Amino acid sequence: MDVLQAIRERRSVRNFREEPLTREQLETILEAAVWAPTGGNIQAWKFVVVTDPRRINDIKAFSPGMLPVPAALVVACSDLERASSRGGRLAAEVLTICDVSMACQNMMLAAHALGLGSCVIRSFSQTGVARLLGLPESIRPELLVALGHPVRMPPAPRRRPQHEVVHWEAYGREPV
Amino acid sequence: MDVLQAIRERRSVRNFREEPLTREQLETILEAAVWAPTGGNIQAWKFVVVTDPRRINDIKAFSPGMLPVPAALVVACSDLERASSRGGRLAAEVLTICDVSMACQNMMLAAHALGLGSCVIRSFSQTGVARLLGLPESIRPELLVALGHPVRMPPAPRRRPQHEVVHWEAYGREPV
User: Fold this and answer.
1) What is the interface size between A and B, counted as CB pairs within 8 Å?
2) Secondary structure, 3-state, B60-96
3) Could you read off the pLDDT of B115-172 as tens digits, one per residue?
């Protein structure tokens, strides 16, 4: 699938069929994740792939924003120890979340290219999910990516008109 | 260009030819930005596109990480007022940076699809760049995306092996 088409057509999908993802699909999605750029090439991240419905359900209890159980869930985490030892405070406090977010966008585009739906979720208890997965203290779950076969593709949510959000040459200047 | 190919082949490009980008190229890249998902569809972002070499040079003074002047620079900002009024503290403190990061990844993939190079930069003075661009206090520059015609495509930086960063079903469990 064309990259610009994937970027335009990807939607946040919250309702999934029960059909599981194949190992190959998941591997393609995870490969996409780790090709995202990372600050100083530190790659201070960890991705926990969960497909066990019971475990996904347990995570869902900490994530009120998640709708019916997706076929798979990627818990995208910062590795704070690696970030801070290799990149200092900026890396641990800011770059990790940027890097993880870019990796999640890659995963969602890859999922879309495979005909799958996805949704990124931040409204969950980081402490709860960390405990449930037995994460060490230095591994902080930042974002969840729900994955599955979409029941249907939702319509595009309203986008703000470009002139409201894109400024040419200077802030507040009207488009030329 | 195929989306998975773009994800795999995109590199952080830091050396650009002098050739400018066309308005159409920039518009395609900015369109890609605003198709990224945003928490609660709040779209609390602003993108300032700078192509004036003098102005880019001024920004470069606040950004030690930026190499020779790129053909264009997108200053990707959070709109903290919009985020906090529509999504509260979580939106202003966390979702904005996630949203802006995902938008930047879309821009870099779109640039790559157009045969252009890009590099995302976080090591700059947010205060300095905000002052230079005359941004209101509620508009915070989060990331810079340098854009241009690459002098050459750099080789892929070393990626950590998948088993170091991808965990299946549980943290620390070896691949099955």
Assistant:
1) 201
2) HCCCCCCCCCCCEEEEEEEEHHHHHHHHHHHHHHHHH
3) 999 999 999 999 999 999 999 999 999 999 999 999 999 999 999 999 999 999 989 7
Kindly list the residues from chain B whose CB atom is less than 8 angstroms away from the CB atom of residue A41.
157-158
> Which of A7, A41, A50 has its CB closest to that of B35?
A7
Query: Among A108, A105, A133, A103, which Cα is nearest to A118's?
Result: A108
Chain A closest-CA separation from residue B133 CA (Å): 6
- Count other C-beta atoms under 10 Å from residue B131's C-beta: 11
- Report the DSSP beta bridge partners of residue B36: none
What's the rounded Cα separation, in Å, for the pair B106 and A4?
A: 9
Closest partner residue to B105 (CB to CB) among A2, A105, A139 is A105
Residues of A in contact with B66 (CB under 8 A): none
- A1, A166, A172 member nearest B30 (Cβ): A166
pLDDT per residue as tens, chain A (176 positions)? 999 999 999 999 999 999 999 999 999 999 999 999 999 999 999 999 999 999 999 999 999 878 778 999 999 999 999 999 999 999 999 999 999 999 999 999 999 999 999 999 999 999 999 999 999 999 999 999 999 999 999 999 999 999 999 999 989 765 54
Per CATH, which fold does B3-165 belong to? NADH Oxidase (3.40.109)
